[in-house]
Every structure is written in C-alpha cells, then in structure tokens.
Amino acid sequence: MIRRPLFALVVASSSVLASGMAAAAPAGTPCALLTALTIPTVTITAATDVAAGAFTPPGAQTALTVPTFCRVEAIARPTSDSEIRFEVWIPPAASWNGKFQGVGNGGYQGSISYGAMATAVRRGYATASTDTGHAGDDMRFGQGHPEKLVDYGHRAIHVMTESAKLIVRNAAGRFAERSYFVGCSAGGQQALSEAQRYPDDYDGIVAGDPANNRIRQTFGFLASWVATHDADGKPIIPPAKLALLTRSAVAACDAIDGLEDGLIDDPRRCSFDPAAVACRSSVDDATCLTAPQVAAAKKMYEGTRHPRTGELIFTGWPRGSEGFGEPASQGWRQYILDPVAPMRADFFRYWLFHDPNWNFRTIDFDRDLAYAEQKLPFLAAVDKDLTAFKKRGGKLLSYTGWMDPVVPPQDTVAYYEGVTTTMGGPAATRDFYRLFMAPGMGHCAGGPGPNQFDALGALEQWVEKGIAPDALVATHRTDGKVDRTRPLCPYPLVARHKGTGSIDEAASFSCVSATPRP
Ligand SMILES: [Ca+2]
Q1: Containing H/E element for 242?
Q2: What global pTM score does this model have?
Q3: Of the candidates 50, 399, 406, 429, which lies 20 to 30 Å from 471 by C-alpha distance?
Q4: Closest C-alpha to 447, from 326, 294, 282
C-alpha cells in the first residue's frame, strides 16, 4: 500500500524526463567550450560567438554580412611539417539546415575563403575553409617542405573536412545529415580531388572550372607565354587586339550553332583563322594583326604538343577567350600576356627542380614533363575512375565557361569524357556526374553569356530528393539587371532555340543532342 503511490510517482517522473529529453535538441557543446575538444593532430585556438551583422575577416577591408554563428579557429598538423589553418562556422540550432559545406580556394592562395563561408552560413549551412597549409600565394612555401606540398595538393581539404565534421557534431550535438563541397578554379580541382581521393568525405560536390590538370596546365602556361612574347619578353599581342580577335572569332562562328546571339555555343566547332584579320600592308593599326601576332594567336589555340610523340600535352585556349571584357581577367592578359615571366614558373624552380636560378627557356617538354608527373602527382586530380564515389551514392555537378581564359574548357570536357569511358558509358556516368557547359562564360564567372546559376541548389535536389539536374537556368546581368536567361545543358546536350519566343528567355530553349561535329 505504501509502495504503490511511490511507484506511480517514480514512473510519472521518468516519463516527464523522457518526453523532456525527446523534445529538446540534442545536447551540443556551447561555442566557447569547443576549445576543449581533443581531436588528434588538431588544435582549436579559438571558439567565439559572432553576432549577426557585419563581420570583417582578418586582413580584409570590407565587411561581410553574416547571421549569428559560432566561429571556430583551428590548426591541423597531420605531419610535423604541416600547419593547416582552418575555420568552422556553425549556425545556432534554430537556423542550422542540418548540413555541412566545405568551400574551396582560388589559385595558390593560402587563405581562408571567408566570402564563400559567409555565403554558406547565410544559407543555413555549417561550413569550413582552410588556407591549405600555407599563407599567401608565394610558391616558395613549398621549397624544402615536401609535406606542405602534399597539404596544398589534397591533404588539407581532407583533414579540414574530417575535423570540421567532428567539430560540427560536438557543437550541434549530432553529425550533419549531408555534406557538400563547393569550389571553382583551384576549388574545382579540390572538388574533383575529393571525389577521386576521399570519396567518403562528401555526398555532393560542385566542381567549377576545375584546374585539376595542374601539372600539364603549368607546362601549358609556360609554352603559351613563350609563344606570345618576343625575345625581349614583351607581349606580342596588345590588349586592343585581343578584343579584336574575340570580336572576329564571334562574328565568324556565332551562326554555326544555328542562332545569332553573340555567343559561340561550342568553340570546338569554330575554326576561325586569325590570318583572316591579318594586316594587308606593313601598316600595323588597331584593325588588323601583324604576322607575328597572327602566329602567336594560332599557337594559343593549338596548345602544347609533345616534341617527340606529337601527343597533345595540354590543350589550347578556346576561340572567344582572347579578350571578351576590359579586365585583365577576362581574356589572355592575366595568366599569359601580362606576366613578365611564365605564370607559375616557380612551380619548376621551387617544387620540381629545387633550383631558384632555373631558366624557363631551358625547359624540356619531354623529359621534364615525365619527371614532373613522376615526382608531383599529388598536385593533380586526374584519376578518371570514380567508382568509389559513385558507389557511396555521391553526386558530382561540374560546370565550366566555354570562354574560360584560365582553365581551357576543352580540358574539362576531356576529363568528363575520360570518366565516361572509364565508368562504362554516358548512361552510367550521368547517374552520378554531370557537366554543364556555359557558352560565353569566363573563368568561374563573367562574360557575355549567362553565367550566374544555383549549382548547389540543383545538387541538393539531386542528393536529397533524387532529382537529377536536366538543366541549370543561368542568367546574364548588365548593370545589375537581368537581360538574358538560358538553360545550361548537361554535356553533351546543348540548348537549342525552339523556333519561337525570345532568344533572351530560358523558356524558349530546350536541351537537345548536338549535331555531330565535322
Ligand atoms: Ca550563336
């Protein structure tokens, strides 16, 4: 008799306790206490609550607009030579979308991609970025530090990813439900490297204008610099004539795709010969190209061939990419013509030959290429076998501008076609990997073609709902106003005008098979 009420009371208390536990969010660790985590080889140096509003990243002049988040700063040292800085930003439980997003880097820059992190956290993601193990873009960081090169090549992104997942788990009290990686340029290489080397890291990967063929691209930069500079190192083609080349190439090839819209749908179909605008006399004026200028442009299109076998070492740059905008980045100036020496020549000096006095004119495109591919394979991401990534259910969404003057789009297409062959054909590849080519788009952004689109949104649909992207609707803006929309189609499909409706409206186009190339 005495026990009964007591028993009932105990039961009642436990059920209150149980329902209370079920209703509450899983117990996470308060932000400031995350410094106490003991992840092997990782030191958390700071963990601070950041208030919504303006956040000015270290060393930056302008502030980013951010929601409230927990900012974790950390250093990973997977080897005794490593010093990989990374940050993890975690939204509070109420605004977290339950997902994690790793973001990529640009070029050789050793810096945390704060802008991309702000974009991710605004979208509700927990996010992470790393400096890839060095500061700045001076390539001398790798001299005498072979492990730092591996960190930059691929390890830093992986270590960041594994550590960030754990930090998010501890901060939120549970693991993220999905993980995505988003990157363009060097970030596109990192994206493909993750799919190839660390297939378990991400459920979905966005690889934009990927610089994944890094070793051969570096040889391509050098060959193209030599082909476009005179013996004194002066650029042969002035900027105004780059614009002339683009105008002439577009005029010659615009209609080949069946629609005169100022865009070359597929520059591989364009055989514009710069000799068509050669000067008729010895007078060199702004409306024509001299013989050396014609020869230099042709070499840019042709790419770099192996001196002994004739094999294409690295593809040339597409017709249309010469100079489609005023900034040096919208054409061949930034990476080829403006530099006083071949871009990334320090790759050879400090990473390959360990000879600061190396003269780039002594390069041997036979033996030196073989040596580089033997010694530095960890710097490239060119494995065409994505079986493990496909098998774990991963989805890979890639895109590239057909006017990209930095990473030649033909190389991105060649990688996609190589994977298609390796993975068992187009249908077996489309299941998990799609490539969207953007006519008239430059390197990651910009250009006369529609070049803004939500790749991550399309990937989320694919990963989370099984809805594969059949097109990405891209917009082009002039002075902030949308003046053209157009579907980007999964390669090898192309957007074709239906015959009615505005050529500036995506709805007037459908994705169809391209006619075979001649
Ligand atoms: Ca056209």
Answers
A1: helix 239-253
A2: 0.94
A3: 406
A4: 326
CA of 254 to the centre of ligand 1 (A): 4
Dist. CA 300 → ligand 1 center (Å): 22
Residue 60 CA: distances (Å) to CA of 55, 116, 131, 244: 10, 14, 15, 37
Tell me how far the alpha carbon of residue 452 lies from the centroid of ligand 1, in angstroms. 19
Q: What are phi and psi of 173, to 5 degrees?
A: 85, 0
What are the residues whose beta carbons fall under 8 Å from the beta carbon of 501, sequence distance 6 or more?
Answer: 507, 508
Compute the distance between CA of residue 403 and CA of residue 447 in angstroms, rounded to an integer: 7
496 alpha carbon – ligand 1 mean position (Å): 10
Q: Which two tokens stand for residue 145?
A: 């530090």
**Which residue numbers are catalytic?**
185, 404, 443
Instruction: Tell me how far the alpha carbon of residue 443 lies from the centroid of ligand 1, in angstroms.
Output: 19
Those residues with Cβ within 8 angstroms of residue 232's Cβ, 6 or more apart along the chain or in another chain: none
At 463-484, the pLDDT tens digits run 999 999 999 999 999 999 999 9
pLDDT tens digits for 415-457? Answer: 999 999 999 999 999 999 999 999 999 999 999 999 999 999 9
Buried b (16+ CB within 10 A) or exposed e, 149-173: bbbbbbbbbbbbbbbbbebbbbbbe
Q: What are phi and psi of 510, to 5 degrees?
A: -135, 155
Pairing assessment for the beta strands 433-438 and 395-401 based on DSSP bridges: parallel
Query: Three-state SS for 505?
Result: coil
The alpha carbon of 480 and the centre of ligand 1 are apart by a number of angstroms equal to 23
Residue with token string 């649909």: 461
Please list, residue by residue across 45-77, b when 16 or more beta carbons sit within 10 angstroms of its beta carbon and e when fewer do. eebeeeeeeebebeeeeeebebbebbbbbbbbb
